[in-house]
Amino acid sequence: MLIGLLTAASSLPSYAADKFNSIDLLADSFSVDFNSCVDLKVKGACEWWKCSLFGCSFKTTTIIEHYTPDVVISVYDDLGNSPFEGTDLFTRITSALLGRNSNGGANASVDRPTNVISRHVDVYGSPASLGLINLLNTLPLGLACEPGSDVLKPYFISSFNPYIWYTGFVDSLVNMEQRLQVRKVTEREDGERGSAFDLNPFWGGIFPRSGAVVSQDHFRASAVFAARAIDIVINGNSVGHFRQDLDGRKGSYYLPSAKFEEWDSYEGRFQMLYPEKESKCHILGDRNIRKNNLDGWSDRRSKDGDYAWHYWRRYKCCPRPRGYSLLFKVEWA
Predict the structure, then answer these.
(1) Which residues of 92-127 are buried (b: 16+ CB within 10 A; e: fewer)?
(2) Cis link prior to 208 (omega < 30° from 0)?
(3) What 3-state class would DSSP assign to 69?
(4) Which terminus of the chain has fewer Cβ atoms in its 10 Å neighbourhood, N or C?
(5) In the chain, what is the straight-line distance between the N-terminal and C-terminal CA atoms, in Å?
(6) How far is 62 from 55, CA to CA, in rounded Å?
(7) Ordered DSSP codes for 125-179
(8) Cα separation, 44 vs 63, whole angstroms
(9) Among 122, 117, 147, 292, which Cα is nearest to 213's?
(10) How far apart are CA 237 and CA 270, in angstroms?
């Protein structure tokens, strides 16, 4: 059955040249690179117990760790014209008060410097998370951690308050200490934290988390916007934005990642959905996926200036038998 699903998914038409929708994302969950995206591992075991008047019973379940495509991050220019079809209506409703006339850089109602790129960013729950869970349940291990995201639920909409998003002034005040840290999107190896003095090509800083970047390349700028948006969703500490937590039943036996690190793929990783659909996952700016030519990123640069990525978040859990309580757990690295 699994082989049939994978074969059918691989024969579906690519949506690289056009927008994509929920059906495309469901199909995508069957065709990604399992090692770089899902990365399923057995990490230990949980021991459960249940007692009654007739005695106690015990059960053991496996601790697993894997990544799930929790959300879609859409970076685009025209309000109501996201590359992720099916999300525009709610974005327009949410933006009706303050953001109804806002746009990104190419079609902005006010002039901006030519070296400043601006974009809207939406973060919505991905249908691919459910597709992945169904896929994992068909494997021999038969285990999966439930996603903390809800399908098509909005987690961040920048046009809700474009004044805060485009200026970044409030975020600078609220996160003054964060601005002193070296957090940035650059070309680098996965796991390379970097410093203020490294020579890696600089794409943009994480803070202030605004919708404007000094850049001549909308691909690099959009990657920075995507990193800033997911940082707002996961790391929080924002004021004035439309933002909702990526929830989930956090507890001793269900542990979704609660932080975002742009330099390392352990907590989470990205998969481009538009304009090109990638099969592998990586950090933004991963130099290992750069082409060996002068530009290096031309195959990922869109014609309309719009982009979208999946964000795959790390989960660790052990299934809880109905009616049982956790006695102890054993984990290994």
Answers:
(1) eebbeebbeebbbbeeeeeeeeeeebbbbbbbbbbb
(2) yes
(3) strand
(4) C
(5) 32
(6) 24
(7) E-THHHHHHHHHHHSSS---PPPSS-TT-EEEEGGGSHHHHHH-HHHHHHTHHHH
(8) 5
(9) 117
(10) 22
Q: Which residue has the tokens 């639920």?
A: 153
pLDDT digits (tens, 9 = 90+) for 271-283: 999 999 999 999 9
Q: Output the six-digit token pair for 34.
A: 């399992």
Query: Rounded to the nearest 5°, which phi and psi values hold at 220?
Result: -65, -40
**Rounded Cα gap, residues 157 and 160, in angstroms:** 6
Residue 230's identity, in one-letter code, is I
- One-letter amino acid at 81 equals N
Q: What is the structure's pLDDT at 9?
A: 35
Alpha-carbon torsion, ordered 305, 20, 86, 78, to 10 deg? 10
Supply the pLDDT for residue 12.
Answer: 34
Q: Look at the block and give the residue holding tokens 């809800």.
A: 150
| Regions of the chain with pLDDT less than 50 | 1-17, 107-110
Contacts by 326-331 with C-beta closer than 8 Å and gap 24+?
326/46, 326/47, 326/48, 326/252, 326/253, 327/47, 327/48, 327/49, 327/58, 328/46, 328/47, 329/44, 329/45, 329/46, 329/47, 329/63, 329/252, 329/253, 330/44, 330/45, 330/47, 331/43, 331/44, 331/63
Paired tokens of 48: 């459960």
